């Protein structure tokens, strides 16, 4: 029942309550009722504090919440990340946790810490640890997923020496926070909290297929750099246009494409959605150049 | 279709987190500076073509995440680099001290022939300076590298630094270069040749391989 609802998308008004329940953060919070408060009050290792402070204004520099140095966004982010280094001293702080914690704070400040704990420990173990073994493993998994779901693209990547770690490290580690329009991101996270890491791999595979799925697309990317430029460019393009009018556009497309679909169907719908947005963006550019 | 360049090679930006590697790169390739930007996760890259001594040099510049744990991922790029920027922040003594660690990693993982250059960034922030210019000069001398103080903010010494390293890489591979001069129409893809170890078919390819592998 819950899974079906997640596929349809969690209503914005309920998201703040659903995510912590889905990922188990609510339970953890109950079990360790005053732990976060205690960690928050204790000082952390100065070396971690320095690294975290240097990153506070490098997460969502254009988001209102994170713009001012002493604003509640940056302060909240500091507290959550600092507490995590005390909670899990062997892991400390990994830079990719910054954008993830920021998105959690935007949605549910009170449970953000425990959601981050659940993501780092249960959903993506080894993603933020000193050796990043989880990332290395899932990058290899992505190769396998691509081989299964889009052999032509997989072969193209192999021929040109393009490995998933070259283009998908930040996709996976930041859970697409920097790569998808915000409304789409929230929908992907709805699914992620429900189904776990395979959602990330599937979204990554869809993005790759969007760039290299057709023979003529592959022909245009003759070389490692050309291929990488396309793969990286797809997301930065969406990222740049994600604010303002495009967002409202996404919602409409999102509803039409996503509603009532099965997971795989959603991901296919995604291709259509990205296609539409990029055509639309090209239109914008043409208008701009005139 | 004729290639847009004569030579292709890879440069790598290394240094602690927050020293301004991404800003240096953005200033060089796009002539832009964003005071607020996002931290690099994993690796990113940009391309630019320079004209040096009448040769069109296409450079790929790989930008790496500075946090130590990303070295699991970034180290595999060391051995593919022909030139490396070691970047520190003149307002951070710590980032300067870490140059030693970065340099020893380069010695360990990069090819022997790799060209290096030392860069002290944020030279515009005079009030916050913690590392004197002389310290940079001295360290560079000890390592036998060239040294530049740069500012991505004011665009000070940026293109000079990148061009210098590109020239050094070209000079270090003069043999290939001379070959190129005699047959300027042939594409000489240094980076690709290096990867195709033992797979070069043509006689010309074998000659390159002798120098590059």
Automatic annotation (TrEMBL), chain A:
Residues 9-196 form the Rab-GAP TBC domain. Keywords: Membrane, Transmembrane, Transmembrane helix. InterPro entries: Rab-GAP-TBC_dom, Rab-GAP_TBC_sf, Rab_GAP_TBC_domain. GO terms for molecular function: GTPase activator activity; small GTPase binding. It comes from the Eukaryota. It holds the Pfam family RabGAP-TBC. The chain crosses the membrane at residues 188-212, 233-257. This is Rab-GAP TBC domain-containing protein. It comes from Amphilophus citrinellus.
Automatic annotation (TrEMBL), chain B:
Its cofactor is Mg(2+). Its main location: membrane. InterPro entries: P-loop_NTPase, Rab15, Small_GTP-bd, Small_GTPase, Small_GTPase_Rab. One of its GO terms (cellular component) is plasma membrane. Keywords: Cell membrane, GTP-binding, Hydrolase, Lipoprotein, Magnesium, Membrane, Metal-binding, Methylation, Nucleotide-binding, Prenylation, Protein transport, Transport. It catalyses: GTP + H2O = GDP + phosphate + H(+). Its EC number is 3.6.5.2. The GTP bound form of RAB15 interacts with REP15. Interacts (GTP-bound form) with MICAL1, MICAL3, MICALCL, EHBP1 and EHBP1L1. This is Ras-related protein Rab-15. It comes from Amphilophus citrinellus.
